[in-house]
Amino acid sequence: MLFLLNDRVFKFLGGSDILVSSGMPMSFATTCTIADAVTAMQTAFVESPELQKTDPVKAAALAYLIASKSGANCAMFVPQGAKVKHPHQVAFRLGTVGITVLGTLNSLQEQGRLNSHVINEGVWKKMAA
């Protein structure tokens, strides 16, 4: 399974194994709602505004949780302002795109050619239309 989080494509090969390797409590993972999963991701972005780069294991685990609770395969989390102190100051958007789009983005990432312009044109602008 592929999941786009901001400017990074994550590959989930072992399913819920990512939750275990991240140290996420399985009690939270099994009982949380999509709202809980989003709030957990927002909280993580408050702690680390570049979460997908600074803690990719945690980012991947939270992305997996969002995907499993919502069916979304892409998400954008953007802290609003320089000194974000509360999870609700992190704006978010969830979406679903075709596997071919995610495959293309993953290929570009592997080539070192994935950038925000490509993501915006290929994912978010198409959803807005």
Care to describe what's here?
This protein is of the alpha+beta class and 129 residues long. The protein is 54% helix and 16% strand. It contains seven helices and four strands; from the N terminus they run ββαααααββαα. Strands 2-1-3-4 form a four-stranded mixed β-sheet, with helices on both faces. The longest helix has 15 residues, at 56-70. The two termini are 25 Å apart. The mean pLDDT is 93.
Helical amount:
40-55%
Largest sheet: 4 strands, mixed
Number of helices: 7
| Rg result | 14 Å
Structural class by secondary-structure content: alpha+beta
In N-to-C order, the SSE pattern is EEHHHHHEEHH
**Rough outline:** globular
Major beta sheet, strand line-up = 2-1-3-4
Q: What count of domains describes the coordinates?
A: 1
N-C termini distance = 25 Å
Tally of DSSP β-strands: 4
Strand content: 15-25%
Identify low-pLDDT runs.
none
